[in-house]
Amino acid sequence: MGLFDRLKRVVSANLNDLVSKAEDPEKMLEQAILEMQEDLVQLRQGVAQAIAAQKRTEKQYNDAQNEINKWQRNAQLAIQKGDENLARQALERKKTYSETSTALKTSLDQQTTQVETLKRNLVQLESKLSEAKTKKEMLKARITAAKAQEQLGAMVSGMNTSSAMAAFERMEEKVLMQEARAQSTAELVGADLEHQFAQLEGSSDIDDELAALKASLAPAPEPKTLPAAQETPSPKAAEPVDAELDALRKQLDQL
Questions:
Q1: What is the CATH number of domain 14-159?
Q2: Helices (runs of H) and strands (runs of E) counted in the chain
Q3: Most buried of 21, 34, 57, 112 (most Cβ within 10 A)?
Q4: What CA–CA distance (Å, rounded) separates 67 from 97?
Q5: Could you write out the three-class secondary structure of 196-222?
Q6: Whether pTM exceeds 0.70
Q7: What pLDDT is attached to residue 7?
């Protein structure tokens, strides 16, 4: 391979790569639709011109047929009048129009076929243009979705997720530590109250035991001796004393 061919291939490859990178799908779709619309306009103009030419040829053909019929009648009239020379001229004029009519008929058939072909092409192009517009809208929607997905992917890839998760973990650890401190404080407060009540119960038991010990160590009172000469009280004199003793016992029982 020569140097020129290699250089040509390198230039072509670079140009193709540059064009591919410069192609915007959305803009290319719009351009394709514009080009199809321009082709449709030109095709419609061509169809209109073909139909006009067909109509003109058809009129010329009909005029030639009318002339043929007219000179045929003239020839018949000349024969009826006995003028063969005039009849011959009429038939020659008829022949000229017949030849013209034959050529016009051939041209008219060709134009009719051409017009029918152009009409079919016009219908197909209109259908393709409508389909292309529908596809364009669908592709534009897909392009928009792809761009959004690409931007989202770039945003996600650009985010420092490890740093963010580490920050969340640190905050969660701080919250757990704060909850643990609050729980320990509540437990300390409860334990302090229980300790105070336990001290109250303990001091009460000690006080009761101390009072009992004091009572057991106190000296017993000496019994009072009655005079020897005292007489035994009579039943009437002992009744108030018994009543007072009963009242004292009731009071003690109520305590």
A1: 1.10.287
A2: 5, 0
A3: 57
A4: 7
A5: HHHHHHHHHHHHHHHHHHHHHHCCCCC
A6: no
A7: 57
Residue type, 187: E
Residue 188, CA distances (Å) to 182, 193, 200 in order:
10, 9, 18
144, 55 contact by CB (below 8 A): no
Which CA distances in Å does 79 have to 68, 91, 94, 190?
A: 17, 11, 15, 147
Q: Which tokens is 87 given?
A: 């009849």
pLDDT along the chain (255 residues), means of 10: 59 54 69 87 92 94 95 92 91 94 94 93 90 84 82 70 68 81 72 65 64 71 53 53 70 67
The DSSP code for 231 is P
Domain map (residue ranges) of the chain: 14-159, 162-213
Per-residue confidence (pLDDT) for residue 192, from 0 to 100: 65
Alpha-carbon distances, residue 58 vs 31, 49, 63, 71, 146 (angstroms): 40, 14, 9, 20, 57
